[in-house]
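Is this the right way to post structure tokens for a design question? Let me know if I should format differently. Anyway, here goes:
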């Protein structure tokens, strides 16, 4: 499981159901030392998406959240933006065939912050109880 910070249209907790990487470098492009060749691995089905009090959606990897705005959210119709440097380990785990659950603490475009603690206990019980959407 991974916990990341993100930027969204509104503040709250979100579980990642898919991702887009269109900016900057991608850790999966190029020589794959684990496989010993150039290959782009299939990441289909890598996300665990448990049901719960959070939303779920697609994240867009951006070079830095410091310069990210709501324009990227609108242009790419993403649910949230995440920093590619923080998201790289998620992609690498997926490339190795690991199914991951990614919880994103989204601050709103207007600057509002998430006021509650991470719903980790609810998330763990949903995953172990089989409450998975996909």
């Amino acid at each position: 499981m991974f916990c990341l910070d993100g930027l969204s249209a509104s503040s709250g907790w979100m579980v990642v159901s898919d991702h887009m990487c269109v900016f900057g470098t991608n850790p999966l492009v190029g020589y794959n030392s684990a496989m010993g060749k150039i290959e782009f691995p299939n990441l289909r089905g890598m996300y665990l998406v448990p049901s719960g009090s959070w939303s779920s959606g697609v994240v867009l990897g951006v070079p830095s959240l410091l310069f990210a705005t709501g324009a990227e959210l609108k242009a790419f119709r993403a649910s949230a933006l995440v920093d590619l440097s923080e998201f790289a380990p998620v992609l690498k785990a997926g490339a190795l065939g690991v199914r991951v659950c990614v919880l994103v603490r989204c601050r709103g475009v207007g600057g509002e912050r998430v006021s509650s603690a991470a719903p980790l206990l609810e998330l763990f019980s949903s995953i172990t109880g089989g409450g998975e959407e996909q």
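Format looks fine. Someone answered above. Worth noting: The two ends are 16 Å apart (CA to CA). Residues 2-128 form a domain with the Rossmann fold fold (CATH 3.40.50.1580).
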